[in-house]
Amino acid sequence: MLVLSRKKNESIVINNNVTIVVVDVHGDKVRLGIEAPKDVPVHRREVYDAIMRNGATQEKPGRAEFNQIAAEVSKTLRPSEAPNNNICYRK
User: What is the mean pLDDT of residues 56-64?
Assistant: First the structure.
């Protein structure tokens, strides 16, 4: 695992087409902005894990399946883990 230190408004680039920016640091929480092509799925780890568990019957879940499973997982998260209005989702 590569470990990097970044300050607010600093970024890293992955594979020339994904940029991760430190948007804000508040206490022990870090807000990240992620710029990626629309064909690159971006999920929080717990959502991704649930998608992989629930999509195990398919070789590769499609976007509709990802979105449906992500919505179901969001309903089961504790309030502190649930998405809030400060998070922007791309379609």
Answer: 60
Give the strand order in the sheet containing 11-14.
11-14, 18-26, 29-35
Q: What is the pTM of this model?
A: 0.60
The number of C-alpha atoms within 13 Å of 82 and in the hemisphere containing its C-beta is 10
With 0-12 / 13-18 / 19 or more C-beta atoms within 10 angstroms meaning exposed / middle / buried, residue 67 is middle
Query: Is the confidence at residue 1, as pLDDT, over 60?
Result: yes
CA 55, CA 62: separation in Å to the nearest integer?
9
Residue 69: name the closest of 44, 90, 88, 87 by CA: 44
